[in-house]
Design brief:
Protein name: Chromosome segregation protein SMC
Shape: globular
Structural class: alpha+beta
Radius of gyration: 24 Å
Keywords: DNA damage, SOS response
Helix content: 10-25%
GO molecular function: ATP binding; ATP hydrolysis activity
Strand order of the largest sheet: 12-17-18-3-19-20
Length: 469
C-alpha cells in the first residue's frame, strides 16, 4: 500500500506531497496534470523491473503517446542547466515474499520509506541520446511507534498492528558520496553482520532495488514486490471480449486480457467443490447495473478448441457471450471479477472509471470501485485483501457519490522554484474537516472549490426542478 507520495521535478509535479488511504479519488479539470500522478507511480513501478531509460520510455509522454527522450519526464526538461527528479514513497509491504527461485522470506520491517533522486546526463562521445543518472537511493524503516501519525486514515489500532511491524534503526539502502559521485550501499538484513555492499551510482543503468531478487535481502525484496504490484488499469473492450486458451496466464492483465481464465481460476481455487458460488457472486454484483437482467453466468470450457469463454444467462433465458456486451458492462464485469480475486493486491490506478457507464449506473460503479479497496476497520483476510484503489475523474456524478474523506481536489498553483521564479504545478487539496486536512501543507479546499461539481451548469436546459413543474 502506497501511503504517501512526494514528487518534485517530474512533469508538472513540482512540489507534490500527498497522503493516500485505501481509496482515493482525484477530481479536477482536464489539463491540470491529474494523470501525472499515475505516471509517477507507474514510473516507480517500472523501475523495479527495467533500466531507467526503458522505464522512462514506457511512461506516457507529454501528448499521451510513448516517447524516447528522457527529458520529457523532467519539468522544463529541454531548458539549459541541471535537471533533477526526486521521489519519495512511503509504503506498507507484504509480510511474506517469494524470491525468483520460489523461496519464501519475511522482511524485518513492513512499513518503509523509499527515496530516489534521478538526474539527466546529455549525450557524450558517440551517444545520440542522453540518459538518466542515479543520484540517490535510500530505503529506511518507518518505526511502528510512528505508524499512527503516518497512517491517519485508519483509527483502528488492530489494523495497524496487523500490517505494520519491525524494529530497526539502520537503513536497508543508503547513499554516500565518494569524490563527488554517489555510491549506493546495501546493508545486511535480519541482524546479519558484515560491511555494506557498495555499488557505484553514477554509471548505473538500473536502480539497486531492481537488482534484488533473492531472499538474502528480504526487506528490500518486499519493497520491490510491493512496487511491482502498482498497476495502471486501462481496460480495453477488445481485450475483455477475447476468449482464453487453457494454457493462457490465469491473472487478468491491466488491459483486461485473460478475464475468462482469471475467473475460471478464482472459482476453482476459492470453492473447489462448488465453483458456481463465485459465478453467483459475480452475477449478483453485475445485476446492480440497471438495464441488465442477469440470472447467472459461467465460464464455458470448449475442450475441442481448448477455449474458455464467459457467458451470461439472462432472466428471460437468453445466453450472451462476453463479446456481445457493451463496453461499460465489460469493464464493470472485469472489476467484479477483480473483487473476487484474493490474489489481486497492491495499488490499482484507474482513469475515469465512469467512462461508458450510464448515469443511472454511476452509483453502482463508484460503490464497486470503493469496495475493491481494503476495509481498514476489519482484519485483512481472503475476503478483505490488502488492496488499494486510486482513481481520477472530472465527472460531477462521481464527485457527488464519493465520500468527502476520499476526495482530493486537483488544480494548478504557482510554485516557487530555486531560481527565484515561480512555475505552475499540480496541487492536490483535501476537503476541510477530513483526515488529510489537518496535515495539509498546501492548504485545504472547501465546497466552494468544487461548486461546479455540485450544481447544474450555467445554461442547463433540463433540470429536476423544471421537470417536476
Amino acid at each position: 500500500m502506497l501511503t504517501r507520495l512526494e514528487v518534485s521535478g517530474f512533469k508538472n509535479l513540482l512540489d507534490l506531497n500527498v497522503e493516500f488511504g485505501p481509496f482515493t479519488c482525484i477530481a479536477g479539470e482536464n489539463g491540470t496534470g491529474k494523470s501525472n500522478v499515475f505516471d509517477a507511480i507507474q514510473f516507480l513501478s517500472l523501475l523495479t523491473d527495467h533500466s531507467m531509460i526503458e522505464a522512462a520510455q514506457a511512461v506516457r509522454g507529454t501528448h499521451g503517446a510513448l516517447h524516447g527522450d528522457a527529458r520529457d519526464l523532467f519539468w522544463n526538461g529541454y531548458s539549459d542547466g541541471e535537471h533533477r527528479m526526486e521521489f519519495a514513497a512511503e509504503m506498507i509491504v507484504p509480510s511474506e515474499v517469494e524470491d525468483d527461485f520460489g523461496r519464501l522470506a519475511e522482511p524485518t520491517a513492513t512499513f518503509l520509506r523509499y527515496d530516489l533522486h534521478l538526474g539527466y546526463q546529455p549525450p557524450q562521445g558517440g551517444e545520440r541520446s542522453g540518459r538518466l543518472t542515479l543520484l540517490r537511493e535510500d530505503l529506511n524503516q518507518i518505526r511502528s511507534s510512528d505508524a499512527a501519525s503516518h497512517l491517519r486514515f485508519s483509527p483502528a489500532r488492530a489494523f495497524r498492528s496487523s500490517v505494520v511491524r519491525g524494529r530497526r534503526s539502520a537503513p536497508y539502502i543508503s547513499t554516500s558520496l565518494e569524490t563527488g559521485d554517489p555510491v549506493i550501499l546495501v546493508h545486511a538484513d535480519g541482524g546479519r553482520k558484515g560491511k555494506p555492499r557498495p555499488a557505484p551510482g553514477r554509471r548505473a543503468a538500473k536502480t539497486l532495488l531492481s537488482s534484488i531478487n533473492l531472499n538474502d535481502d528480504p526487506t528490500i525484496l518486499a519493497a520491490r514486490r510491493e512496487m511491482q504490484s502498482w498497476r495502471r488499469l486501462a481496460l480495453e473492450p477488445s481485450a475483455l471480449r477475447t476468449s482464453d486458451n487453457y494454457r493462457d496466464p490465469s491473472e487478468m492483465q491491466p488491459d483486461g486480457l485473460h478475464l475468462p481464465r482469471s475467473l475460471d481460476r478464482i472459482a476453482r481455487e476459492r470453492f473447489p467443490d462448488d465453483p458456481a458460488r463465485v459465478y453467483s457472486r459475480v452475477a449478483g454484483r453485475l445485476s446492480d447495473l440497471s438495464g441488465l437482467h442477469v440470472k447467472t453466468l459461467h465460464v464455458e470450457a470448449d475442450d475441442t478448441r481448448e477455449l474458455l469463454t464467459i457467458k451470461l444467462h439472462e432472466i428471460d433465458g437468453m445466453v450472451l457471450p462476453a463479446r456481445s456486451l457493451s463496453e461499460g458492462t465489460l469493464r464493470f464485469l472485469a472489476l467484479c471479477v477483480l473483487l473476487e480475486d484474493p490474489q489481486a493486491h497492491g495499488l490499482l490506478c484507474m482513469e475515469e472509471p465512469e467512462n461508458g457507464i450510464h448515469p443511472a449506473n454511476l452509483s453502482a460503479m463508484v460503490e464497486l470501485v470503493r469496495d475493491l479497496a481494503v476495509d481498514p476497520s476489519v482484519p485483512v483476510d481472503e475476503d478483505n485483501p490488502f488492496r488499494q484503489v486510486l482513481i481520477n475523474t472530472h465527472s460531477p456524478g462521481v464527485v457527488q457519490l464519493v465520500d468527502a474523506t476520499d476526495l482530493l481536489i486537483a488544480d494548478t498553483a504557482s510554485i516557487p522554484q530555486g531560481t527565484g521564479k515561480a512555475a505552475r504545478g499540480l496541487r492536490l487539496r483535501p476537503l476541510a474537516g477530513t483526515w488529510r486536512a489537518s496535515g495539509a501543507e498546501k492548504g485545504y479546499g472547501t465546497k466552494a472549490d468544487i461548486l461546479a461539481y455540485l450544481t447544474s451548469p450555467p445554461g442547463a436546459r433540463l433540470t429536476l426542478a423544471e421537470s417536476a413543474s
